[in-house]
Amino acid sequence: MFKVRPARKVILHSMLWVLMVMGSDGQPDRAEEIANAKSVVDELIEGRFNAIEADYNAQMATFLPPGKLAEIWEKIKSQLGAFKSLNGSREEALQDVEKITLHCVFERQTLDIIIAFDRTGKISGLHFSPSGSTEQWTAPKYATLESFHEQEVTVSFGKWQLPGIIATPNGKGPWPAVVLVHGSGPNDADETVGAQKPFRDLAWGLASHGIEVLRYTKRTYKYGMESSDNSELLTIDDEVVNDARAAVDLLSSQSDVDPNHVYLLGHSLGAYLAPRIANGDEKVHGLIMLAAPARPLEQVAADQVRYLASLSLVSPEKVTETEAEIRRIQKPDLKPNEIVSFLDEHMPGSYWLSLRNYDPIEVAKKLSIPILIIQGERDYQIDFAKDFQAWRSALNGRLCVTFKSYKSLDHLLGDGQGRCEPSDYLKMNHVSNVIIDDGTKWIAEHDKD
User: Which of the chain's ends, N or C, has fewer CB atoms near its CB within 10 Å?
Assistant: First the structure.
């Protein structure tokens, strides 16, 4: 999903995004775009929101209506305090877009303000992401770097070409293999969140134990609102399902992979959709579901907002507003091209309609493949009592389904203590070694089948 990332963290594992809309014609001048991005920040500070909105491209103007930016900026200032200074920048060229990241120091935290310009120089994306951690990611201790190697690949579905990385054990295969499927939000191949890279942890950890792993850039990270043939009718299949199946096809075709032992590992939204991805796809021979929602996504998100309100990170009014937004998402006459605002994001009704009749538990019941479901009990984004227990209640007793939970793990499957808060994701942490051990042992058991 497309979200703005202020200082709080909501909607499954991703923080709240505004939007990343991709452009079309012309070729940007990078130095000029850096200067333009700094001008946008100056205008934010001065409250000149109309000037910024005048530079939106057509899609950006549609999905972020007048007045919304001022509302978002006020929320950021209320949480982070006054803007203090700029502390560097970086540039990145994406599909038809120049993306400029400015590190902005506020009273209580550093925030990345990420501005995308299309080829005409118009603003095509605006994104706020906490960058309060200065820690650099380092390899987890369970990753034996000399035991595997990596190669770049491309996951293709129609006109969409997604950069991917395959981590392959050294030696002679064929190897069992795993495709990693992201949580919500535009994600890079490592599923980077703050200072953490859970998908790189998983890939390197599993590859160190003789399992080939494919991770790839999510379509919405590279293509933004151009992730669908019709940008006004984006669906969950556009965002996740079609590319995940294409990734399974790609990994199954590798000469050193055992095509009879290809598994899908989904995290958060990816876990929620794992049964849907596997249903009817004979190349998926098992599912590993980490932090899997069992309820409709809007209900899960509402619980996250209530939790954040209990930490005084959002107002009681935000809880009320969220409940009203959910009623709109669930209304019987929701139109596919109707823009729905939910937690400051703007998505077409088609997105929510593509999820309306999906029940992951009921779809999972139809599957005959083995399933491993793992939940961290410190995870405030996926409720242990409501979601994990719903999976256990519905599927317990089935010989092909295994359940595991751990008291110390959070939503990114890292170890910790006490009540989990959004700021935890800004600290360097790794996917716990128990997840690597569980996944390795479970795959080894079914590799014999």
Answer: C
